[in-house]
Automatic annotation (TrEMBL):
UniProt keyword terms in alphabetical order: Iron, Iron-sulfur, Metal-binding
Annotated Glutaredoxin domain residues: 141-205, 261-325
PROSITE patterns with a match to the protein in the record: GLUTAREDOXIN_2 (PS51354)
Location of the Thioredoxin domain: 12-108
One of the GO biological process terms: intracellular iron ion homeostasis
CDD domains: GRX_PICOT_like (cd03028), TRX_PICOT (cd02984)
UniProt name for this protein: Glutaredoxin-3
Domain of life: Eukaryota
Source organism of this protein record: Sphaeroforma arctica JP610
Entry's Gene Ontology cellular component terms: cytosol; nucleus
Amino acid sequence: MMSAPGTVISCEDEATFNTTVKEHPGGLTCVHFWAPWAKASVYMNEVLETAAKKYPHVTMIKIDAEELSEISEEYDITAVPTVVFLKNNKECDRLQTAVAADLVKLLEKHSTGVTASVPKGAVVEKDLNTRLGELVNKADVMLFMKGDRATPRCGFSRQTIEILNAENVDYETFDILEDNDVRQGLKTYSDWATYPQLYVKGELVGGIDIIKELIENGDFEEMVPKKEKPKATITPAAATTEERTHESYEYLVPIINKAPVVLFMKGSPDVPECGFSRQVISLLESENIIYETVNILVNPDVRADLKIYSQWPTFPQLYVEGELVGGLDILKEMQESGDFLDSIPDTCIRKE
């Protein structure tokens, strides 16, 4: 599939991808793994379009990481956006940030005979520690989480939002899924390996377990500023709509709770039908987890409704004791930090 120089090739299937890569064996190829629900990866598509015009001899490809999950698995993609750089059909580098200047640096590093400049609109990044210091002090109470307060994208983040709202805390949030530099850098800055992370006046408080402990012993009340509770203004009609919406998803609750650990996936453990589902099954088996699965491919209503119920747009989704933990990238991160087994009931871990 030959393409005009200075354009980004959208590969819709595996055959097109393989053909495109083989057509450019000696040059530099950039493959952007993206997803339409991830704002950062949508932005990176725009950055690639700009970069393609400045680097006409570099082959620029974008593929939907979920739709072409076999390719994603081949390149070990666990988060979007990810840009993989290929030379001679072999990976030479990768980028997991949504920063235009970072893309340019790698293009300059790996392309030959091309004079590069930063695409219009790119911002020169501050020293990361300086930026992190500014972020943790952006508000008196800052929560670094997966998603935002309206759409938390992991069970722990959702629980923390519920606690802060119940305690009437005045806080702001930062979505670490939108900025991989912050996501990775804050772990070192705070010496705290997991998310969410709560900061009060620039000082780390901790994660959800610490917050719960502080509430139980009465210390949390004194630490955080509160906001004035607004008076309830829900009309009878609004309440009826809310009740009806809640009831429409009520059927999912027994499915989510049919076992202590439930995985909603594409396919079955014996025959997973996407690369992400296959990797999660492999992770669960390697940790000797006892679990049950739900095949969303034969349950279209569950597949559509669970995205809304959980406010999590992709699959697989893992639930532990009725609470959403997350997808592949979160599970891998928890496994690497040593927190995964701590989140699983002892009765759901096979003894060797």
